[in-house]
From TrEMBL:
Pfam families: NFD4_C, Nodulin-like. One of its GO terms (cellular component) is membrane. It is found in: Membrane. Residues 339-550 form the Major facilitator superfamily (MFS) profile domain. The keyword Membrane applies. It is a multi-pass membrane protein. It comes from Populus deltoides (Eastern poplar). One of its GO terms (molecular function) is transmembrane transporter activity. This is Major facilitator superfamily (MFS) profile domain-containing protein. Its main location: membrane. Gene3D superfamilies: MFS general substrate transporter like domains (1.20.1250.20). Keywords: Membrane, Transmembrane, Transmembrane helix. The chain crosses the membrane at residues 12-36, 56-73, 80-105, 111-128, 149-171, 183-203, 215-236, 248-266, 332-359, 379-402, 411-429, 435-456, 468-490, 510-533. InterPro entries: MFS_dom, MFS_trans_sf, NFD4_C, Nodulin-like.
């Protein structure tokens, strides 16, 4: 019985949550960037170059998608066992994470000679790139295991990844005693050890029960509690400094909260087992052959899980609907040749690109508007919470509308881009305390798009090559960030800056930049609406019909 509970999609989900909670080291760059700059003798421009490679590594995950698809297909054909499929991809990510951060730590503390800038950029890219391997595995496996609630499970996985930065910062403040060099070593060890410990539990299961949503909601509730708890800690830290004992206590409570999904998994498995036993007794009682549904007890990898089920008792779908269904099972090359792929890519360029540009420049924007250092630090910390709320909320809400009325999910991309347009406009306005409101709107919208994009990918292009396709679309984020951060914000700031070291103060420093980004985000609204109208029939004829046939 103990082995039975280990080999379930619920334990796989818990393992994915724990891994996601530890691998967001790329979000902590602000903690160790100062010692990286001073120990390596970098100027600000060089440090920004290193940061760009960090962003590219964290967002360009095509290799992880290809590896996941290759090993999942191979495992499906040959039944390679536990150490195949998702496990191999997680192992590759763990190795990259350790090598990247360990070499960075060794260079910072002087264990090895100072690295050339190009070499440091490579290892920074490698360390951040490891995140895509964990993210791809956990998101795609989650969609495979809970395909009927793809938005919710993607929101959970993306949400815990967003919270992981704040969790790792709490670990830093508790263990490292303010030493960012030690934190780099901690980043080399923590995500790697967590991935190695739990990677064998992350697998794909072809199971489906009517109570999946109830327990997914329980996982969602835990993530909301953790986010609220972290918000309280961040606020307390900005009001007064916490003692070492207080930090140990608060971090212990945080670990207990992160561990709590295990109890949910145990309850879910117990209910599934009771339901199976009851069904078996009823079948024996009616003297029928105990034919056990593969949807309850068969746990195996299968990329065909997400296809529209066929029922012999029903008439064959119309040829148009069959064509729409076939379009939902594409590889990367087929997706690249479709209009829907490029519409989604352009929408993400407008949203993720401009959103990341705002997030990367939030401290400098606050400085130009006269915010204190404490206020700027609070904005940076709180952005991770708004990011989480968007990642979690968009998947959850869009699932509700999809299940109740067949609403095509691209409509919610348009809504979030509209919210981002308002957020950029508020930042451009420059009125008193505008960043607090603007950062909430942009942060929630940015996080929402990270949840919606992978789910839409799985629904429009299919789950078989989902990892490769959504990671290709994710390239829009660093491309957009570079375009808006360097070619728009940086260029205009240098033009209007006139103070010492070309500094700038006042709303004029960023007003034009954010008006441009607001216009781009509004253009993204139009693109997302076009995608909505193009896919509306597909969602009604294929996705919604499949959900109704459950």
């Amino acid at each position: 019985m103990k082995m039975e509970i280990v080999n379930t999609k619920w334990i796989a989900t818990v393992a994915s949550i724990w891994i996601q909670s530890s691998v967001g080291a790329s979000y902590t760059f602000g903690i160790y960037s100062s010692i990286l700059k001073s120990s390596q003798g970098y100027d600000q421009s060089t440090l920004d170059t290193v940061s760009v490679f960090k962003d590219i590594g964290a967002n360009a995950g095509i290799l992880s998608g290809l590896l996941y698809s290759a090993f999942t297909l191979q495992n499906n054909r040959r039944r390679l066992g536990v150490f195949a499929g998702p496990c191999v991809v997680l192992l590759a990510g763990a190795i990259q994470s350790f090598l990247g951060y360990f070499v960075m730590w060794a260079s910072v503390v002087g264990l090895i000679r100072r690295l050339p800038v190009a070499v440091m950029c490579f290892f920074t890219w490698m360390a951040a790139h490891a995140q895509t391997f964990s993210n791809t595995t956990n998101v795609v496996s989650g969609v495979h295991n809970f395909g009927d609630y793809g938005g919710t499970i993607v929101g959970i996985m993306k949400g815990f990844l967003g919270l992981s930065g704040a969790i790792l910062i709490q670990l830093y403040q508790t263990v490292c005693n303010g030493d960012p060099g030690t934190f780099l070593l901690l980043l080399a060890l923590t995500p790697t050890l967590v991935s190695l410990l739990f990677m064998s539990l992350v697998r794909n299961y072809d199971t489906n029960t009517k109570d999946d949503k109830k327990y997914l909601n329980a996982f969602s509730a835990v993530s909301l509690i953790i986010a609220a708890y972290l918000t309280i800690i961040i606020i307390l830290e900005n009001i007064s400094s916490l003692s070492s004992l207080a930090r140990i206590i608060t971090f212990t409570v945080l670990l207990l909260l992160v561990a709590s999904p295990l109890g949910i998994a145990v309850r879910a498995h117990r209910e599934d087992s009771d339901r199976y036993a009851q069904a078996l007794l009823e079948q024996r009682g009616s003297k029928q052959n105990p034919v056990i549904s593969s949807e309850i007890c068969k746990a195996e990898d299968s990329i065909e899980y997400h296809e529209l089920p066929s029922e012999e008792g029903q008439a064959k779908p119309a040829s148009d609907d069959k064509r729409l269904s076939d379009e939902g099972n594409m590889n990367l090359l087929q997706a690249l040749c479709s209009v829907n792929f490029w519409l989604l890519f352009i929408a993400m360029f407008c949203g993720l690109g401009s959103g990341l540009a705002m997030i990367n420049n939030i401290s400098q924007i606050g400085e130009s508007l006269g915010y204190t250092a404490t206020e700027r630090n609070s904005l940076v910390s709180l952005l991770s919470i708004w990011n989480f709320l968007g990642r979690f909320g968009a998947g959850f809400v869009s699932d509700i509308f999809l299940h109740r009325g067949g609403w095509a999910r691209p409509l919610f991309v348009a809504v979030t881009l509209a919210i981002m347009t308002i957020g950029h406009t508020i930042v451009a306005a420059g009125f008193s305390k505008n960043l607090y409101l603007g950062s909430v709107l942009v942060g929630v919208a940015y996080g929402s798009q990270w949840s919606l994009m992978p789910t839409i990918t799985s629904e429009i292009f299919g789950v078989g090559h989902m990892g490769t396709i959504f990671n290709t679309i994710a390239i829009a984020s660093p491309v957009g960030s570079y375009t808006f951060s360097v070619r728009v914000i940086g260029f205009i700031y240098d033009k209007v800056g006139s103070g010492e070291n070309n500094t700038c103060f006042g709303s004029r420093c960023f007003m034009l930049s954010f008006m441009i980004m607001a216009s781009v985000a509004f253009f993204g609204v139009l693109v997302a609406l076009l995608l909505f109208f193009r896919t509306r029939r597909f969602y009604k004829s294929v996705v919604f019909r499949r959900l109704q046939n459950l």
